[in-house]
Design goal:
This protein is of the alpha/beta class. It has two domains: about 210 residues, FAD/NAD(P)-binding domain (3-Layer(bba) Sandwich); about 120 residues, FAD/NAD(P)-binding domain. Helix content is about 25%, strand content about 25%. Strands 1, 2, 5, 6, 7, 8 and 19 form a seven-stranded mixed sheet that branches. Strands 10-17-11-12-13 form a five-stranded parallel sheet, covered by helices on one side. The N terminus is likely disordered. The structure holds NADPH dihydro-nicotinamide-adenine-dinucleotide phosphate (NDP).
Length: about 350
């Protein structure tokens, strides 16, 4: 439970946030500022760890490019993605987190205190939470970018609901695309899968499920050349990858499902990176290095939800605080009122 803070005290607490250029040794640094990183910051700040959040040049994660979020608990009317993340941020700052809106450019996890560099600036921390997330891979078309959040999405779980009774297309032939297409049949009138080769890459069982579904049609050898519409998407120009011929497909939604790229380059050679480039987690939040914890989509290729990432951030902060107490860097954790 968060105790009520009087309004006067609130502004004082915000004012005590140290400047972002303070490179003194920290008890905890958090790399990443999506739901996992900022939830970790809220918990850690309330445990007086005064975390430094290295938030990235484009902070606050994938929800910043999402419009309506209707599945995050606590917002019965829904909330815009950027507004939700701003609330996460304010809550983290309220208790004394420092947010640095720059990319970490190098880390050294080989010795404690761990080193994190932001350009020339070196930060040292006794513990680190890695919450760098994953990014959806996009097609890279200017028109795709223009309609993002206005009919173009990379998350059926997040946005499928808005396409009730509509016709949508899904790009991709892997398990993500097959899963998204099958999920979208709950809402959409028709789902057209656009596969750039003449076969799927995904598993047999998921192929069968999609191919056998009366609402799903598969168009082989097709790629998207352009997304068209006025305020929102109304059609796609498709290009046949075998003949080069173009055609028009009227749809109101386009789901890009060509894979995710976990943001793990920074840790290459220092942490174990598993299948698909995701970080391997040991136990709940462990990395294999004492004092380094992992949270959110950078390791989770299964759920990929804001609420699961937030839960992970909470766990990582509790684990970090207990670990710091166990090595004598903080007072024992048992008194912490999470
Ligand atoms: P994959 O890399 O397996 O598949 C990507 C798909 O997108 C391929 O069909 C690929 O085509 C296509 N593609 C890539 N780039 C483009 C492009 N520019 N234009 C059009 N199509 C493109 O990624 P997934 O995210 O599907 O899966 C990643 C991993 O996660 C896999 O191991 C998968 O099994 C797993 N997974 C498992 C799930 C489950 O078990 N429930 C659910 C989701 C994922 P091409 O084949 O021609 O390269």
């Amino acid at each position: 439970m968060i105790p009520a803070v009087p309004a006067t005290l609130k502004s004082e607490m915000t004012a005590t946030v140290p400047p972002s250029t303070d490179t003194s040794r920290r008890k905890l640094a958090i790399i990443g500022s999506g739901p996992a990183g900022l939830t970790a910051a809220i918990y850690a700040a309330r445990a007086n760890l005064e975390p430094l959040v290295i938030a990235g040049n484009v902070p606050m994660g994938q929800l910043m490019i999402t419009s309506d979020v209707e599945n995050y608990p606590g917002f019965p009317e829904g909330i815009q993605g950027p507004e939700l993340m701003q609330k996460f941020r304010e809550q983290a700052e309220r208790f004394g987190s420092t947010i640095l809106e720059r990319d970490a450019t190098r880390v050294d996890l080989s010795q404690r205190p761990f080193g994190i560099w932001v350009g020339q600036d070196e930060y040292r921390a006794d513990s680190v939470i890695i919450a760098t997330g994953a990014s959806a891979i996009w097609l890279g078309l200017p028109s795709e970018e223009e309609f993002r959040g206005r009919g173009v999405s990379a998350c059926a779980t997040c946005d499928g609901f808005f396409f009730r009774g509509r016709e949508v297309a899904v790009v991709g032939g892997g398990d993500t695309a097959l899963e998204e297409a099958t999920f979208l049949t709950r809402f959409a009138e028709k789902v057209t899968m656009l596969v750039r080769r003449d076969e799927f890459r995904g598993s047999k069982i998921m192929q069968e499920r999609a191919l056998g579904h009366p609402k799903i049609e598969v168009l082989w050898n097709k790629e998207v050349a352009e997304v068209k519409g006025e305020m929102t998407v109304s059609s796609l120009t498709l290009r046949d990858t075998a003949t080069g011929e173009t055609s028009d497909l009227p749809v109101q939604g386009l789901f890009i499902a060509i894979g995710y790229k976990p943001n793990t380059e920074l840790f290459s050679g220092q942490l174990q990176i598993g299948e698909g480039g995701y970080l391997d987690v040991i136990g709940e939040t462990g990395s294999g290095i004492d004092g380094v914890f992992i949270a959110g989509d950078v390791h989770d290729h299964h759920y990929r939800q804001a609420v699961t990432a937030a839960g992970d951030g909470c766990k990582a902060a509790i684990d970090a605080e207990r670990w710091l107490a166990s090595v004598g860097e903080t007072e024992t954790a048992t008194a912490t009122n999470w």
